[in-house]
Amino acid sequence: MKKFDVIEKIVTDIDFKFEYGNKEKIYRYLFSYDENRIIECMAIVHLLDDTPVDLTVEISNMYNCVVGCRFCASGSLPEKNLVLQAEDYLMQVDKSLQESNINYKDYPKFYVAFTGIGEPSLVKEEVAKGIMLIKEKYPNVEVNIATTGFDNTCFEYWDNLNLPIRYFQLPYYSCEDDKIKYIIQNAPKDYDLRRNIDEALRYKKHHKECRVKVNFVVMEGINDNEEDIDKMIKYLEEYKSDILIKVSYLNYTEKCRENNLHSPSQNVMNRILNKLQSSGFDCYIFGTENNTELGCGQLVQNYICDDNR
Ligand code: SF4
């Protein structure tokens, strides 16, 4: 197989809550990379009822993520971690649009999201180079970056470049050290979400169009009771007017099953949303209760683990 040949393509239409819509058409791809490695990426048409609101291509920047989130398949794939190159990002965008028969110009907005496998802060130079390459070919593109902020100098680095970054998304699992370490297994000793938010907001000061999202991934028995939410509100209080909180269902994965991690019910999610809103936070629910969506890395893992192939 040649590099970037399609190994698997799955197309699904789902009802899916997000900030400004309620449906998605997803084209998921596995592309060959080298003899042993497979890359995962997807093109998503976001819809409000039946009207497309944007086209987003979610790309990977690594094979095997080094962050090690306990619920995520991306850190436990066979073969060593491999950092992808800027040209590989562009290739994922090109190939996923081409194979889906999609013209990005047909959509009101076109986004490329660094939300697939990998931690963008650790490859900040490559990410900047990749964004520039993608922008050269797709001039109206805007970029979403999800980062754990393992290297929080990334925000300052990107600040000095003229990049079309639309938002940063930082994860929130808890403000308690033991819980953070439990979920983010490879978190650096000095990991500090507040410092990361400060750095992202400093970027935002110079780039007014960029937003800072906090992705609260809710897990039953870990961060979903009244006390957890009160602590979170207190922890994030000072950022209230500057951030948007995404209250996310946990996608069901093999890793979740192994670690006994579950998403709470819709009632609990609504209760959390109401509490955050009544405390003055701007927030929304992301995902579905039936939780049929695949988490990142899961398609690769499912493919590799399918003995019938
Ligand atoms: S959720 Fe993202 S950061 Fe965490 S292990 Fe998976 S790919 Fe890496």
Based on CA inertia axes, which overall geometry fits? globular
Radius of gyration from the CA trace? Answer: 18 Å
Heterogens: iron/sulfur cluster
Q: State the strand order across the main sheet.
A: 1-2-3-4-7-8-9-10-11-12
CATH class: Alpha Beta
Give your account of this protein's structure.
- The protein is an alpha/beta fold.
- It has one domain: Alpha-Beta Barrel (TIM Barrel).
- 30% of the residues lie in helices and 27% in strands.
- The strands form two sheets. It has a ten-stranded mixed beta sheet with strand order 1-2-3-4-7-8-9-10-11-12. Strands 5-6 form a two-stranded antiparallel ribbon.
- α3 links the parallel β8 (142-146) and β9 (165-172).
- α1 packs across α2 (124-137).
- It is globular.
- The model has no long low-confidence stretch (mean pLDDT 92).
